[in-house]
Design brief:
The complex is a heterodimer of chains A (about 280) and B (about 325).
Chain A lengths: L5 H27 L4 H6 L11 H7 L2 H34 L5 H9 L10 H10 L7 H23 L4 H9 L4 H12 L1 H17 L2 H6 L8 H11 L4 H36 L1
Helix pairs in contact in A: 1-13, 3-13, 4-7, 4-9, 4-10, 4-12, 7-10, 10-13, 12-13
Chain B lengths: L15 H10 L2 H8 L1 H21 L2 E2 L10 E2 L4 E2 L2 E2 L3 H8 L1 H32 L4 H15 L2 H11 L6 H9 L14 H26 L3 H9 L4 H12 L1 H15 L6 H4 L11 H10 L4 H31 L1
Antiparallel strand pairs in B: 1-4, 2-3
The chains are: A mainly alpha (about 280), B mainly alpha (about 325).
Chain lengths: ~280, ~325
């Protein structure tokens, strides 16, 4: 590694080039929010002459913006909760007992892994409408949790099957039933996998655009992705405003990522090792 | 009624009720009845039934009014929808915008497999070893993946805006007469989207490869080096073969994701100009959902479903089988 040569120079140059392709547009976005429209035109990628905070201030002072964030947060948190709870319960059943049809039902759920979910978007819209939950957070939450089922049941089951059976037998002797064992032993032992799945489901839900677009009509219920598109439509020529808006929504994602990095990597490894 | 077979005590055929009783007394029945149905119900109502309905709705012309296209409307004295047979599919086949959308989706698949994955692999090989600099690069490369598609699309629309960003610089450098708007240009719009797709997702695949590479035993590499293997031999004969499961996973995610690209298209071009940059999903949204043509949209969904499921089975039959062997 420490040998110096043209290979090393080429390697580092390439890495720096790719990094620049990522960092420069992001930096331009953050800085763009501080520039006047005129300056943004002439000098899109440099530092601003004057740091204007009015665009950021306007967005952060707008109640509607915070409502977008709250809606996204609520939808994401409830989706995570439902996916973890229902997914782990089903996986626990599959891991603990064999029953007539268990293989069939497990395969049935796993079919969800192969479906391109966007294919069913029109009938899904009608289902949600017929259930009377159109234009409510539940119209987004329930489909999201349902689509997360296949993936979470698969991961949970693999994890639960690694919990030693002796543990259950011992608890059994002490009079602990299946359901009690799940809450008292299985769940506490499963925090790594719970966290990993939570992170993925949360990020997916937080970033989702298609489902909210289809299910939510009332501006008061908009998620931030819908809000961002609206904002862009409203200020079509004022890129500095849109860039400021994008920046304030990027901040939570980046902070969240840094905090949850360990679990994201664990999730990727889990998938790769399983093959 | 499902009859359980508890592992040790196989119930004799005539003792079915005995088995059931034991099943109930052990608490297994309660577990089964309480823990499994919520997930199954949710999955059935919001995934399976809509998927089935897409195929049931596809031979109708229907605005979505009423419970189902075949339901009887008392007010009009006929069904809510009109049975049109295969007309929706014929219309699709004859629609130039659909052909473009399907071609674009195929392009995403190709670019993902032929450009994105090799790039991700090359980068993973460069930075999988643990060092401070490598950690920093890894973090940077993974950032685009966690950004929302909408945010990414907006950022790149700015970069590609002829009056502002990158394209203005290009205009100045080439001393063009007019500002260049790649997203407003039929020949360039979709290529710009393809570039952003690679930009956004290569880091995800790179992380999968890095995880795989870090799992390769150091001894194996050292032994090969002792035997005189050079860097290229190590990659070709040890690292890539051992990475096969990781590559298989990333191919699967990559293709399944590629056929469903939508969120990025909307902020960048919304399918334009003149429907040149649609994907299958944005086509479905635009020509099915927006116009409330439930049957037509469902027909597009069926096509998408067939593409996805064909790929999934082909994947199982080829890649997965070879890995298992």
């Amino acid at each position: 590694m420490s040998r110096f040569g043209w290979g090393a120079v080429a390697r580092v140059s390439f890495l720096v080039l790719v990094s620049a392709l990522i960092v420069v547009p992001l930096a331009a976005t953050v800085l763009g929010g501080f520039k006047s429209a005129g300056e943004l035109r002439v000098e899109p990628f440099g530092l601003p002459d004057v740091w204007r905070t009015e665009f950021y201030g306007e967005i952060l002072g707008d109640l509607q913006f915070w409502r977008y964030l709250w809606n996204s947060l609520f939808i994401s948190l409830v989706t995570v909760f439902l996916t973890l709870l229902l997914g782990s319960m089903a996986a626990y059943t599959f891991a603990q007992i064999r029953f007539f049809g268990s293989t069939f039902l497990f395969t049935y759920l796993l079919l969800g892994l192969m479906f391109p979910f966007a294919a069913a978007i029109m009938p899904l819209f009608l289902t949600v409408r017929n259930l009377g939950i159109l234009d409510t957070p539940w119209g987004v939450i329930l489909p999201q949790a349902a689509f997360g089922m296949a993936f979470s049941v698969m991961f949970f089951r693999t994890f639960f099957e690694q919990i030693p059976a002796d543990l259950f037998d011992a608890a059994r002797v002490d009079g602990c039933g299946y359901i009690q064992f799940y809450f008292r032993i299985t769940l506490p032992l499963s925090t790594p996998i719970l966290a990993t799945i939570a992170v993925f489901v949360f990020v997916q839900s937080w970033n989702n655009y298609l489902l909210p677009l289809i299910m939510l009509n009332d501006r008061a219920g908009y998620t931030w992705t819908l809000g961002a598109m609206d904002y862009r439509g409203e200020y079509i020529q004022d890129w500095n405003r849109t860039l400021a808006f994008v920046t304030v929504t990027l901040a939570p994602a980046v902070v969240f990522f840094l905090a949850a990095q360990k679990y994201i990597v664990a999730g990727l490894t889990g998938g790769a090792v399983k093959g | 009624m499902s009859v359980a077979v508890s592992d040790k005590h196989h119930a004799a055929a005539h003792d079915r009720f005995g088995a059931l009783r034991r099943f109930a007394r052990s608490g297994q029945l309660r577990l089964l009845l309480v823990f499994l149905p919520p997930a199954l119900l949710l999955f059935t109502v919001f995934v399976m039934l809509p998927m089935l309905n897409a195929s049931f709705f596809s031979p109708y012309k229907w605005s979505g009014y009423g419970p189902a296209p075949w339901a009887f409307n008392v007010d009009t004295g006929r069904e809510f929808g009109d049975w049109v047979g295969l007309r929706n599919f014929r219309q699709l086949a004859g629609h130039a915008a659909f052909a473009t959308a399907a071609g674009n989706t195929a392009k995403i698949v190709l670019v993902s497999l032929l450009i994105q994955l090799p790039l991700a692999l090359a980068l993973a090989l460069m930075i999988y070893q643990k060092s401070y600099a490598n950690t920093v690069f890894r973090l940077i490369f993974f950032v685009p993946y966690i950004l929302a598609e909408v945010a990414t699309g907006l950022i790149w629309s700015f970069v590609f805006d002829g009056n502002f960003g990158l394209s203005r610089t290009v205009t100045d450098v080439l001393q063009l007469e007019e500002a260049f708007f790649p997203l407003g240009d039929k020949a360039w719009a979709f290529n710009a989207i393809l570039a952003v797709i690679v930009w956004k997702y290569f880091g995800f695949h790179m992380m999968i490869y890095i995880a795989g590479l870090q799992g390769i035993s150091r001894d194996l590499i050292d032994a090969a080096v002792v035997d005189g293997a050079r860097t290229f031999d190590l990659i070709r004969y040890i690292k890539i073969p051992l990475l096969a499961p990781a590559i298989a996973i990333s191919v699967f995610y990559s293709v399944l994701g590629a056929i469903q690209v939508f969120d990025l298209v909307m902020p960048m071009t919304a399918g334009g100009p003149s429907n040149s940059s649609h994907t299958l999903v944005s086509y479905l949204y635009n020509f099915g959902f927006i116009r409330l043509r439930v049957g037509f949209g469902s027909a597009v969904g069926v096509v998408l479903f067939v593409v996805g499921i064909t790929f999934a089975f082909a994947y199982r039959a080829t890649i997965q089988r070879r890995l298992a062997a």
